[in-house]
Write a structure and sequence with these properties.
With 321 residues, this protein is α/β, with parallel strands linked by helices. It is built from 13 helices and 15 strands. The protein has one domain: 4-Layer Sandwich (Metallo-beta-lactamase, Chain A). The strands form two sheets. It has an eight-stranded mixed sheet. A seven-stranded mixed sheet has the order 7-8-9-10-11-12-13.
Length: 321
């Protein structure tokens, strides 16, 4: 019996890997250069800044001026219980980063629709864990979708297979962006900072880490990146400084290292976790690290959905609880 179960798991994993390879074939066939080609090209100065440039480039100054002229960036940290889902809006464009666990599929879809959104410019699955991609198949099937970004990682789960099936049924492909890539979301810039290795023991370290910059304000979204991925980003010399940090892995002790916080220097931190979850998230040790640095902490388990609004100069927060 055990042998049959193991065989079924191997077959399922092989099928999932094959489907993932097929869905990524459009970009992966030409290697990493092909992947970068799928993304909107960023000005050379902006790319240098992402890799630890001095900042204040002509492109960044122009972006700040555009933001100051009017408009806002809204970042919605949707309360999905024990999971992650972040909706970002700028101008007429929007991006969903993760869609929470399977049980939150309808709630995430309703939240997006309540804002009058019918088309998502980008859909991102940071890594193939159920509490992050559980609702992605529903979202991809229910809304117009421009591009789908996920890392080169797979999982032997029905949840992951459902996402691949939804992508396939829509006739789309998955793009795996590389660190240093960037693209525009309205007048905001989105930079990819991780994953920086091709193989990890933990799926969490495959998390796509994104930095969203609007005017002179910025947000760093970590997915579930753990200390290894954080150390790689520091070693790469990326510009990690951000006003708002979406704390990795729901505030677990596996992430949010002191050296990483020293580089990010956030003024605000957002933790997405379920009330009374069985994992003890967020960890008291993580909360103490943030509090010792004077960082204002917002938590979905305490405040419900959290919406941060940037006018390009300052950031304000609203909560539903």
């Amino acid at each position: 019996m055990k042998e049959k179960t193991a065989a079924r798991n191997i077959i399922r994993r092989c099928c999932a890997m094959l489907m993932l390879l097929l869905l990524m074939s459009a970009s992966a066939g030409c290697g990493m250069a092909g992947i970068r080609g799928v993304l909107k090209a960023a000005p050379k100065a902006a790319t240098d800044s992402a890799a630890g440039g001095s900042g204040g480039t002509e492109g960044e100054v122009r972006a700040a001026e555009e933001a100051a002229a009017g408009g806002t960036l809204k970042v919605h940290f949707i309360d999905v219980g024990q999971g992650d889902s972040i909706l970002i809006q700028q101008g007429s464009e929007s991006m969903l980063v993760d869609a929470g666990p399977n049980g939150s599929s309808t709630a995430v879809g309703k939240y997006i629709a309540s804002l009058g959104i019918t088309n998502l410019t980008y859909v991102v699955g940071t890594h193939p864990h159920e509490d992050h991609i559980g609702g992605l198949d529903y979202v991809i099937s229910s809304f117009g979708t421009g591009s789908i970004y996920m890392p080169r990682a797979s999982a032997n789960t029905r949840t992951f297979e459902d996402v691949l099936t939804a992508v396939s049924r829509k006739g789309m492909k998955i793009t795996a962006p590389a660190p240093g890539d960037s693209f525009k979301l309205g007048d905001a810039k989105v930079e990819v900072l991780a994953p920086n290795s091709s193989s990890y023991d933990s799926l969490n370290n495959y998390s796509l880490v994104l930095k969203v910059t609007y005017g002179s304000t910025s947000f760093l979204l970590e997915g579930d990146a753990q200390s290894l991925s954080e150390s790689e980003m520091v070693a790469k010399g990326f510009d990690l400084k951000a006003d708002v940090l979406k704390v990795a892995h729901h505030g677990s002790t596996s992430s949010t290292t002191s050296s990483f916080l020293d580089r990010v220097e956030p003024r605000y931190a957002v933790i997405s976790a379920g009330a009374d979850n069985p994992y003890g998230h967020p960890a008291q040790k993580t909360l103490e690290k943030l509090e010792d640095r004077g960082i204002r902490v917002y938590r979905t388990d305490e405040s419900g959905t959290i919406t941060a609004t940037s006018d390009g100069k300052a950031i304000t927060f609203q909560t539903t609880k």
